[in-house]
Amino acid sequence: MIEYAEKKKVMDNLFNATLKLLNSSNTKGSSS
Question: For residue 32, what is the DSSP state?
Fold first, then answer.
């Protein structure tokens, strides 16, 4: 269970980072 929790945390971090990148690129595109 501990390994699963660690993996889930890593996946959540990757997912959040991807969303941030997408959001930042979207705002850049709309502003320019």
Answer: -
Does residue 8 sit in helix, strand or coil?
helix
CA-based angle 7:18:21, to the nearest 5?
155
pTM score, two decimals?
Answer: 0.62
Mean pLDDT of 24-29: 76
The C-alpha torsion from 19 through 20 and 25 to 30, rounded to 10°, is 90
Q: Which helix (H) or strand (E) holds 19?
A: helix 2-31
- Distance between CA 21 and CA 24 in Å, rounded? 5
